[in-house]
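#data-curation
PF: Archiving a pair of folding outputs for the training set. Convention for this channel: one message per protein, sequence first, structure tokens after, nothing in between. First:
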Amino acid sequence: MYHLIGRLLYLTYTRPNISYAVSILSQFMHQPKECHLHAAYRVLHYLKGTPGKGVLFKRSGKVEVEMFTDADYAGSTIARRSTSGHLTFVGGNLVTWRSKT
């Protein structure tokens, strides 16, 4: 079980959609039960059913983490609503983004 969770943790680099489930499973490694093994198998089954849905990183010489943010507080004079957003890049590849009004 320890090796299976370790391999799933490694996969979270390119499959961030399994990060939450794998992090919860890793919390039970000190005393795993059969239900945790079944949950890990469900993650594997999900991965088998969604090939090609990971993050594709382009090759680059260096890996840097860059984050850009912007905000406009009450920029709309009529609605008085604020807008904000952020982008996160790893090695020039967009990995997360969010925009909120």
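PF: Second:
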Amino acid sequence: NQLDRLLTLTKPAPPPIRKKTLCFIRLDIIGDYILYRNFLPLFKKYFEDYETTFIGNTVIKDMATHCDSQYIDKFIFLDNAYWEKYLRIG
């Protein structure tokens, strides 16, 4: 009985509830992004209680952050040219 009481007093706190997250990955360039971005308002509406992250090519960085920050919570940009050179085999 006393051991049970001690265990309930030292019970670890439950882990925090993680917010729902959604990640979009688009490493293509400007033309494809322009076509794709038309869907962002729909995604935002359907997943309104989600935190959204966009991973994309640095080529579209200025356009994406300027035009679509109302739909995306966090942006991450990768330099495709660097990675293509770095990962080139042969």
